[in-house]
Write a structure and sequence with these properties.
Blueprint: E1 12-14, E2 17-19, E3 22-26, E4 32-36, E5 39-45, H1 50-58, H2 61-78, H3 82-85, E6 87-90, E7 93-102, E8 108-111, E9 116-121, H4 128-159, E10 165-169, E11 176-178, E12 183-187, H5 195-207, H6 216-225, H7 229-238
Parallel strand pairs: 3-5, 7-9, 10-12
Antiparallel strand pairs: 1-2, 4-5, 6-7, 8-9, 11-12
Helix pairs in contact: 4-5, 5-6
Length: 245
C-alpha cells in the first residue's frame, strides 16, 4: 500500500485551543472532512503536501468549529453512564439502575417494578462499578436479541421481504448492516432507543434487500414504511456517543 503519514502532525487552533486532526492518505481523487465521535478526520489523496492539507483545513475552519462543538455537546448530553447517573435506557424508557454486591454464585441482572437491578457476585475480581456496567451491557444485549428478532420478522412481513438471517452485533461505527447475502445485523445498543427508532433502523436495513444503495428509490421505499425517517436519522446522529459505550 502506498499510503503515508505526515512526518509532523498538523496542529490547528479550534475554538481557541490547539488541536491535532487525524490526517489519512489514500487512493482517492478529492479531499474530504469528517467529524465522528468528536474527532476530526481529514482524508486526502496520496502525495498531497502538508502545506496543502493545512490550507484545506484552514479554509473550512468555521465549519469544523461549528460541527465539532455541536457533536461534542451531543456526546456530553447522551453518553450513557448508568453508574454515575443511576439510569439506564431500555426501548426509550429511562429506568432507575442500581447494583449491589452479594454472596451469590453468579452475577445477574433483573427487571423489577422499580427499575433495573444488578447483583454482583463476590467472586468477581473486577471493581463492582466496572462489573455492574459489563453485566448490564450483556443483559441489554440479551434484551436486544429477542426484541430485534420479533420486530424484524414483523417488518419483513409488512415489506414482503425475506432476510437470510438476523443477528445482533457489537458495531462501533454503525447501527445496522445488510450484507449482499441478505444478512441483517443490528447493533445491540439500539435497544436503548424508542421502539419507533429501532423500527426505522430495521426498515432501513430491510430496504437494502431491494435497493443495495442509498438512492432516491431506496429512501422512497423507507419512507413508505417509516414516514418520519428523517427525524430518526437525526436522532441517531445526535446519539453517536452510544456507539462508544
Amino acid at each position: 500500500m502506498n499510503a503515508r503519514v505526515l512526518k509532523q502532525p498538523i496542529t490547528i487552533m479550534v475554538n481557541g485551543e490547539p488541536y491535532e486532526p487525524d490526517v489519512r492518505f489514500s487512493r482517492r481523487k478529492t479531499a474530504a472532512l469528517e467529524i465522528r465521535h468528536g474527532e476530526l478526520l481529514v482524508r486526502v489523496p496520496l502525495r498531497t503536501s502538508r502545506a496543502w492539507v493545512l490550507s484545506f483545513i484552514q479554509s473550512r475552519i468555521e465549519w469544523i468549529e461549528k460541527h465539532l462543538t455541536n457533536q461534542c455537546e451531543q456526546m456530553r448530553l447522551h453518553l450513557p453512564d448508568p453508574v454515575e447517573q443511576s439510569r439506564v435506557l431500555l426501548r426509550g424508557q429511562s429506568l432507575h439502575f442500581s447494583f449491589s454486591v452479594a454472596t451469590v454464585a453468579k452475577s445477574y441482572v433483573e427487571l423489577t417494578d422499580e427499575g433495573v437491578d444488578a447483583l454482583i457476585s463476590t467472586r468477581v475480581k473486577k471493581a463492582p462499578e466496572e462489573a455492574a456496567v459489563l453485566i448490564l451491557k450483556a443483559w441489554l444485549h440479551e434484551q436486544a436479541e429477542l426484541f430485534f428478532q420479533q420486530r424484524t420478522h414483523f417488518w419483513a412481513g409488512q415489506m414482503q421481504l425475506t432476510p437470510h438471517c438476523v443477528k445482533t452485533a457489537n458495531f462501533k461505527r454503525m447501527w445496522g448492516r445488510c450484507s449482499s447475502k441478505g444478512e441483517i445485523a443490528l447493533n445491540w445498543r439500539l435497544i436503548m432507543a424508542p421502539e419507533e427508532a429501532i423500527d426505522y433502523v430495521i426498515i432501513h436495513e430491510l430496504a437494502h434487500l431491494v435497493e443495495f444503495n442509498h438512492s432516491p428509490a431506496f429512501w422512497a421505499n423507507v419512507a413508505k414504511f417509516c414516514p418520519e425517517y428523517r427525524h430518526w436519522k437525526q436522532f441517531f446522529q445526535d446519539r453517536s456517543s452510544w456507539l462508544l459505550w
